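Submission checklist for the structure archive. All mandatory fields must be present; incomplete records are returned to the submitter.

[x] Identifier: Cytochrome c oxidase assembly protein COX20, mitochondrial
[x] Organism: Drosophila lebanonensis
[x] Residue count: 110
[x] Sequence attached
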Amino acid sequence: MADDAEEPSKSFIIFGRDIAQIPCFRNSFLYGISGGIGIGLLTFLGTSRPHFSTHVGFGSFFCGTIVYWFGCRYQWSVRRFEQRQLQEAMRQQAMYEGTETERELDLKSA
């Protein structure tokens, strides 16, 4: 029997970064790929022109991936900023707990 050695995780490294650790990367590509395939197929069914349908499919893949990426990263940045603000507020609350400063802050906020 083998020792309890862990299998190395399967990761894909690009430019020195593990892409599995990049927020929004996976979902952006999944939505882009599925949208590109769907729109490409619908274009082919509508026009029966494979060359044109391939171009439309790839264009929609590219645009869909980029649009989803920027939207997702923007939301991620907003949430991260709010989490940091909340974390700092909680740190301040813990530091002022039981002091005169806390009572003054409570009176001002009420």
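[x] Structure attached
Curator remark: Residues 19-105 form one domain. The two ends are 66 Å apart (CA to CA).
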